[in-house]
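Progress narrative, work stream C.
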Amino acid sequence: MTDGTTLGVGMVGYAFMGAAHSQAWRSAGRFFDLPLQPDMAVLCGRNAEATTAAARRMAGATPRPTGRRCSAATTCS
């Protein structure tokens, strides 16, 4: 859920490309006139420990490790 000024972003993956895309989302507002500020909300990954560590590094996203699905509707189960 956002406060109306942010867009919650969910990302699958935390290794090199996950880190690159996380950085891109964090800096998108410097390059584009965005109506909402991107906010890294959820990070999904296969390894629970690595996903949790990466979520802390990537702007405090909520980690969703192994066995959980992330959907476009911003729900994880």
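Work stream C, second folded protein:
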Amino acid sequence: MTFDKLVQNLSDIIKIAAKSSQPTDLILSQLLRQRKYIGSKERQFISESLFAYFRNQSLIEWSKTQIFSEIDQSFEDEYHLQIIALLLLTLESDFGIDYCSSHLLSKIYPNKESILDQLILPYIIANRLINDDSITEWIGKSQSVISNIRKMYSEKQSTSPSFNTLYSIPEWITDDLVTQGISPVDFACSVNKPANPCIRITDNSYTESIVKLLNSKDIPFHFSKLVPNCIILEKRAKIDDSDEYRQGMFEVQDEGSQLIAYVLNASKNSDVLDACAGAGGKSLHISDLCDDNCDLVAADIDYPRINEFRKRLYKYHKDNITVMHIKSMDHKSLEKNFANSRFDFMLIDAPCTGLGTIRRDPLKKFRINVKQVDKMHQKQLEIIEHYAKYLKLNGVLVYATCSVHSTENQNTINSFLKNNPDYAPDSISDVLDLHNIKVDGLKDGDFCLNLYPNVHGTDGFFMARIKRIK
């Protein structure tokens, strides 16, 4: 594939992904399947470039205006200019965004000794972005601009562009992080890097088999320091086609997400409700920790996801889990399903903005706004209000989100406790001590726990543990 066509394909995919409401990895997978003519090395370039672009979109857009300041900014395809700006910024591997354009392009064009001189500059000239007679002057100026941008990024200091432009993160997100005592610079840098895949070993006895599998595929890994039976892969790899996966020896699940089942700490012979079970990953983990000696209801209003969990259950042979589709989370619908049910333990992994998963879906930074966060807060509060009444006296409820915004997290659970005096905080630190789990920032007696990518190396999560006292 010629460099021109490679840039055109990347530009087309960026356009479509930017307008889509689907997760970035899903839309990318769909678009690449439609383009069967694209080779494996080109696919890798497009995939990594797409995520590098969206992780650093504001920076790339600003850099384009600086690098190409003397040309018509209404060039027929603005994404082409932004792609070239991205490639120029990342020719060297020491830029802090875990993306090196020259490394990826050298795999596709191994005979090109200089990516800049033999690919990028000819493209710029051929598309008349710069006149032939001014190219030498432009190279000197653009290199100075790029050097300055790279220096500001690495030193984490900038007045122009603004901090939020330099690290491509909206101000309303960083303003909220400051109120939580979290460094916005460190957070922004952490979410501008890809997340490592994590797997949960479903039983201690499978550990040796999983280690052998990873070693046989030359996949570097290390064990999590946060949660037991969790392995962190140090590179992306396809392992869900293995016999070990088909036999249910492991699940793919972020280590922060795995912590939630330990925070719930459901006991054996108890009645458990996973109220927003989705595809059932946490339901499986809760059951595993009880040695399957609990009666667990996995419910959700999303029929396709909960139906997929019903199919997944076949390989686990867990007859203690009942899968339930809830038509609505209003009082009437819940009464229809749970009128005669009361639970010892309840997990509400509530719908949220997903601002804790920016590493995996960087477009969330730009798709979400403050109004949506406020609206989600009201929805979350209603869900807790509706479900909490089905908790037994002295029963435990864990509220969780994959968001880092305080409105969805601490504010939501505080509002619930203020309006419902029959419920009270219950220590998370005490139950994690039972599993010898230590979490940075968690103090004795805390009933709320925040996880941040820059502090804990996980996706962003929030968990609150409360108990019914009346």
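The CA atoms of residues 187 and 454 lie 5 Å apart. No further action is required on this item.
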